[in-house]
Amino acid sequence: MSLFDLFKKRGSAPVARERLQVLLAYERTSRQKPDLVLMLQEEIMAVIARHVHIDQDDVRVSIDRGDTVSTLEIDIQLPNGDSMALAS
Amino acid sequence: MAKVVVVTSGKGGVGKTTSTAALGAALAQSGKRVVVIDFDVGLRNLDLVLGAERRVVFDLINVTQGVAKLSQALIRDKRIEQLYLLPASQTRDKDALTEEGVGQVIAELRTKFDYIICDSPAGIERGAQLAMRFADEAVVVTNPEVSSVRDSDRIIGLLDSRTLRAEQGETVRKYILITRFDAARASRGEMLGIDDMLDILSTPLLGIIPESEGVLRASNVGCPVTLNEPANPAARAYSDAARRLLGEDIPMALPVDRRGLFDRLFGRRAA
């Protein structure tokens, strides 16, 4: 901590302000159009399900919404080799 | 010409009913004919805050269903002339309120009053949407707290899309009313500041109501704070807000932090 930090305005309000700005920017745009990330998630899942039988438990989806960039992380555990069942 | 004003917020407990009572009383005290309507079917409280809880005979739903005439359901305030209350039903199913029924009641009230103030229930469901449906202006009550600011933003979105005015291509004039504000905490960076909230919500400010013990004292005795303790800072802030609603240009008096330089430097709390 530098000497300068001692004089900086502290408090939790700036954190509140920043969190709100990020959140509301996202919520305002998603009010007008369907959630792109959710749409991607559903369609990617549909494509996988068309070709491979997978359990719901083998799929982990997480979304991290940031100020400018959002990440959609899909972690799918595919069964190996022979046991890999093709869906028709 | 009559104006329909909805007092809304999304979040519960931020002071919609208190603000409806105080603004309604202040407008009536300045000579306007005012009716305040409780839209919180099943959880009415505006009658209690106005001290009229023992005088309720008929309610809004009775009127929309034709069981009672509007004149039978309106309760005249005993202290302030030209202030009337239309209570919500405490017992009936909330689906009993229809858009058509509410529209007819509001149309009739427009011929009799200058201000029709609709106290919205919390949430964004049917009751809240009906309360804002016919509004010309909206007072969005907001606390300096993240959840309240977020819900206010959501409500502002609904005011711009789900009201009759919005659907007709007009706009509902919207104002933020900040309640329970603590200037000392805001100046220490512990509470969202006025500029922060206005910046985030990009909506004009109607008033800043300081956190005050007088507000609870007023509801305890069933009297709007503007009447119960006219000199109280919260009461004065409500009176100023009412005058701004009337179109007067009243400078915004920030609830001042009275701590001196010494206290500021050493971070002492104001007594």
> What is the average of the pLDDT values of chain A?
74
Largest sheet of chain B: 8 strands, mixed
Rg estimate of chain A, integer Å: 21 Å
Q: Main β-sheet of chain A: number of strands, strand sense, barrel status? A: 2 strands, antiparallel
| SS content category of chain B | alpha/beta
Total number of strands of chain A: 2
User: Roughly what is the average pLDDT of chain B, rounded to an integer?
Assistant: 92
Strand order of the largest sheet of chain A: 1-2
Q: How widely separated are the two ends of chain A?
A: 63 Å
Oligomeric status = heterodimer
Which overall shape of chain B is indicated by the principal axes computed on the Cα atoms? globular
Sheet-strand content of chain B, in percent, reads 15-25%
Question: Could you describe the 3D structure shown?
Answer:
The complex is a heterodimer of chains A (88) and B (271). Helix content of chain A is 47%, strand content 16%. The N and C termini of chain A lie far apart (63 Å). A two-stranded antiparallel sheet of chain A has the order 1-2. By secondary structure, chain A is an alpha+beta fold. Chain A has 3 helices and 2 strands. Chain B is of the alpha/beta class. Helices cover 41% and strands 16% of the residues of chain B. Chain B has 14 helices and 8 strands. In chain B, strands 3-4-2-5-1-6-7-8 form an 8-stranded mixed beta sheet, sandwiched between helices. In chain B, strand 3 and strand 4 (83-86) form a beta hairpin. In chain B, helix 1 (16-29) crosses helix 13. The termini of chain B are far apart. Residues 267-271 of chain B have low confidence and may be disordered. The chains are: A alpha+beta (88), B alpha/beta (271). Chains A and B meet through helix 2 of A and helix 7 of B.
